[in-house]
Amino acid sequence: MAQENHKLWGGRFTCKTNSKLEKLNCSLNLDRRMYAEDIEGSKAYAQSLKDINLLTETEADSICAGLDEIKLEWDNDEFVIKAGEEDIHTVNERRLKELIGEPATKLHVGRSRNDQVVTDMKLWLKANLGVLEEKLCELIQVIVKRSTEEIDVIMPGYTHLQRAQPVRWAHYLLSHAWNLKNDCERLENNISILDTMPLGSGALAGNPFNVDRLELAKKLNFSHITQNSMQTVGDRDFIADFLFWASMVGIHLSRLAEDLIIFSSKEFEFITVHESFSTGSSLMPQKRNPDSLELIRGIGGSLFGQCCSFMMVLKSLPSTYNKDLQNDKESMFSTFDKLQSILEVTTGTVKTLQVNVDKCRSSLSFEMLATDIAYYLVRKSVPFRTAHHIAGKVVAEAERKKVTICDLTLEELREISPHFEIGIGRVWNYENSIEQYQAIGGTAKNSVFDQINKLTEWLQNKLTDLKNE
Fold first, then answer.
1. Which of 97, 163, 250, 442 has its CA 20 to 30 A from that of 260?
2. 292-314 residue pLDDT tens
3. Where is the Fumarate lyase N-terminal domain (predicted)?
4. Which one from 192, 265, 281, 309 is the annotated catalytic residue?
């Protein structure tokens, strides 16, 4: 059993762990990413044990110095992992004993890996979610900059993937920026939920040594502490919240990618994806494929897969800690890494793509102004439902005569409704159509600039907050 000595639970066992179970049970390849958080939690806990006289000041200082040395080994990629070690908690404690001897064996009193791991995960997320928030802000910045510079580009807007009404390219781009802003604000809620400390809950019953959890929370920069030890050690709602949030960001990025894939096709040619974010075909020399966007779309879907699979892990668990929860770290790290990568690629793709202004303009058609015919009639006091019906008849008459609606003569229009007058000719103007949508949120130039200004102000405040954190 000598090789089992480093296990934190080995005392009651008389034989070795099965090698296949040992491999399955090992989470060190994943949770080693939390080495700094594990050390941070242990240092704070050592100070709390000193405060209740379970450690002397000398022992606490020795433990903290040893943990600092271990962190340096991890930082410098010098830490040596031994065969059979299970997780980050085990290896750090084993190494601590090698460095400082017996005081290391006192550190874990009243603490369990059950409350230790959930503390580490919360600390890790608190330390790293700002990275994703910054990536979101960078993408929003790129969109806002392009929208400002290309505000006069006009393109078809779509519903059901059918041409609907003319809009500004900037208005289209900003529709995605607002989704991403919402994602940033939802992330703030997640960060707030993370600000509750689990440490001091033990295995499930609590801490028997009257550790001052409120003081411990201050040491670890938590604002609150959990209130029920059984709930605490089995709680992974914060991971589920993160995975769902990441899934929503993935969906928003996927929808943007889908639009741009369509817009980059020869059938549309509204945009050209830069070569640096494209790949070619091994068979067809002419191909330039928007693989960056396709990968964003595909990985965006896989994020929801992580969320769904983890929810199924949680669904049927009995109360408190169960080993099923070891899947939490794989879901957390994998989702974090994938989301960071597609945010970076989305930003690069959107920043470098070329808008084909003439193609966007030439894809407009006068049938897209059919709603404007109805609005023309409404302004002449025709009830909207009646005006809508009349506009539909205009479209049908143009189709019957195989002409565009602007080619119908005033006489032909008046045969459909006497409300048509010579001023109807002003309707056949795309800029006029766009500029009528002056209300907040519309595609008129002033309204789009208002969106840009609001997002710019929000970004400035957000980036200042991130810099100060």
1. 442
2. 999 999 999 999 999 999 999 99
3. 11-305
4. 281
